[in-house]
User: What shape does this take?
Amino acid sequence: MSAMIYFSNKPDSYLRIEKVFKMPLMCINARLSRINQQSYKSNKGRSGLILLTAMISGLIYGIITLTLFHKTWYHKVLSVFSTMIFIFVSTDMYFELLEKRIKKDIPSTLKMLSHYYTHYQGNVVPALNDTIDRCSKNNKVFLSLLRDALTAPDCEKQVAQLEEAMPSVWLKMLCRIMLFAKENGGRAASPEQREVKVDVIARNLKRLNSVLMQLNIEQEFNDVELMGMQLFVFSFPYFIIPISQWYNSSLLSDMNIGLIYDSVQAQNLVAIMMIVGNLGTVFIHWMRKLHN
Amino acid sequence: MWRLYPLMPKPGEKRYINAAALLANGGVSLSVESFYLIKICLFIVAFIFTINIQITNVGLNCRSIMTDLNFSRTAMDAYVASDPERVQLELYLFQAASEALDSASVSLKMLTDEDNRNIYTEYISNLISNSGISLKEDAVAAAKRLYLKLVTVRSIQSQYRFYLEAFLLSVAMFFMPNLIVISKIKLIEDKRDWEVLHFIYVFSIFGRLPPFSIKEVLSGMLLVSDLFKNLLSSLLNSLKSGKAEDAFKETLSKTDNQDIYELLEMLRLSINTGLLGIVDSVDEMAVNQQKWLEVKSMKRRKTKQVYAMIPVAAAMLLAAIYFSYSLSILTDPSYFIK
Assistant: This one.
């Protein structure tokens, strides 16, 4: 109700401006909430900071591009387009880095969980507790939430909700396996049956670990090969332009180099270089993400 | 409404079917109509943008010629430093000559005819003399220069290749979405095979867990799926309605990937044999699939590197052009004056 009053008292143009800023903030917040499993409200500050950093760096980048090429109207349009690509790619790469840290630690966490699950003979909660104490901090929050969901009275509903919020499909799989383990692993009729079921869950955790290891290796191959190219294509204009101007100025000291590089043709070349750099970066970034 | 667009294919047409197949293979969740709408919008935006760029560039080019005080001067001639007053005067004289010999009455062919050259030069010379403007140079030399400028500017303005270039670029943009989807199909071959391997592992995991249900296995596969999401979700929905055999039959007929066909066939067999009776074969399948994937991955990595090298090569070419740009205009003496 208060939100309605808040919005209805404002002029339309202000509301539209607010909407433009709220949408990217909400997208960033949603992605961040998935990664750190905190609420929308508690992530508001951090999301705002990420958005502000992205806008400021975009502004600096925009000023640099406008300094490099600004003679015609289409240079300015290309500069805006280039800035938007820069903001998008840099924000996406930041989140990719956070998600990668989580995925990298999952195999060792699963190994630990499998060991403790066998040690506690199918008791999920103590196994999870010990794993939480010893696993990497990137995975602690997910296991803690899983433990809390499994100990709740309506554990199926809680685990289903948790599954929706997990950032990785393999963590979702883990939720499902642990739910199975809780519902079926400890309720065996005889000690022999319990041993078989513990063995099955433990082996399945090992299988999951094996899949994740292979996936991480493959993604690492991808990143090693393509990340270098992505960085080169993105950053080459910032090296080539000053180096060319400095070198040619010293080589052709009698010429009016400032006039040469200030011409429309030279600025067109710079604009094309920046656009090729940006689009090439987006293309390689897309290629890497296709595999993930 | 879609039929209003001239380039939109009708449902049932070959182009429509090909586009639908392309989108399905590429895992693009767009209808054919939306796809074509995007292509047409891209074409229109690219056309408007590039035409305006060409008009701007032609205008800038012509203006630089009009205001060039050293146009057609050779290295032997004395270089004239440009100052705003002289540039304004040059512009004024050019405009006057252009109005006197306007394109409606004097065609480009007449203007460029060698026999008429002296006549037009003399005409412009008289125009300068009668204008009462005091030039710091000989009127005949100025007239020759203005005549050459007029011929150059009119030739540039009459060329249609700039607009043809813009049109061709717009046509290329029209086909850009097709190129993107085809590239995606090539690049996701690897992902498709990995997804099948993940399905096999999920089958192996959930096939050994109670309640030993095909629906649970499929639900697990759906969890890790991305490219085959639509296929698996339609199968799962059909299974929930009760007709398992028919659901599998329909899904298998829609599948053209051999590996996923084999996996779904095994899942279908488990209706009779039970899941536990088949999971050992699934484990063997996982081992074989993994080995094949290692071999295929080596080849595909090379292909991905080639694709990624395209922007790298373009970047290096542009860097070389920019570096050598200053050397390309060494013949222009105006750049020697600081």
Q: What stands out?
A: Chain A touches chain B through 63 residues (CB under 8 Å). Confidence is low (pLDDT under 50) at residues 1-10, 186-190 of chain A. The two ends of chain A are 42 Å apart (CA to CA). The CA atoms of residues 120 and 126 of chain A lie 7 Å apart.
